[in-house]
Amino acid sequence: MRKTAFISILSLALTWACKEKREVGTEEIKVESPAVTPEIPDPDLTDQIPGDQYLKNTVSEETASLIRERLRALHADDLKSGFVDSLSRKFIFFEKDLNGDGSNEIFLGLTGPYFCGSGGCSQLILDSKGEVVTTFTVSNYPVYIANEKSNGWNDLFIYSGGAYRVVKFDGKSYPSNPSTLPKLGNDPDESLPRAMDFLKDNYPWFVF
Questions:
Q1: What are the DSSP E strand ranges found in 111-189?
Q2: For the region Disordered, what residue ranges are annotated (predicted)?
Q3: Among 156, 158, 197, which residue's Cα sits nearest to residue 54?
């Protein structure tokens, strides 16, 4: 009787052990594949800069499309007549909230003989919907964004007329001709944010 009971217990133990072994042996082993970083689209294929190496706030295709629409509307007649050459149809931009409302304004830089002359180039500031806040004339790049504010908007330092000028928001817009404004008296602090410094920073050029 004892022998029979012992054999029964041993049989149960072996059956459990075999079952456990089968379960372990058939357990699915998951091998995690290495994460693949999606390739960032390159907005400017005319240069050698990879898409992920451009300066932040300069690459949004949504913003570029908004700018294209605005520029085509502003210069529709001259575009139709062919007065705007291919170089002058290139632009850069930099997004920055200037009035603290949570939406970025858009610094718009232009180039080519249609927009630039010996005194500088035309530049624009657009609001987040693409409406023109200010059009600057005879202005050079870059534009420094000061910490000080006037009427709720950041002051700007723009090189125009042989010197950096202090450009203050008047409640409706910035003055359009910086060369007539007071001189800064010294070079801007290099730690300040700067817009459209395409000689030092990586900017993609877009076409309208």
A1: 116-117, 120-126, 132-139, 143-150, 153-160, 163-167
A2: 29-48
A3: 197
In single-letter form, the type of residue at position 43 comes to P
pLDDT at 164: 98
d(CA 144, CA 157): 5
What order do you get walking across the sheet with 194-195 strand by strand?
163-167, 153-160, 143-150, 194-195
Over residues 8-39, the pLDDT tens digits come to: 444 444 444 444 444 444 455 555 655 555 56
Could you give the count of Cα atoms lying within 13 Å of 11 in the half-sphere of its Cβ? 6
Alpha-carbon gap, residue 117 to 162, rounded angstroms: 14
The b-or-e profile of 188-207 (16+ CB within 10 A means b, else e) is: beeeeebbbbbeebebbebe
Which tokens sit at 142? 């870059």
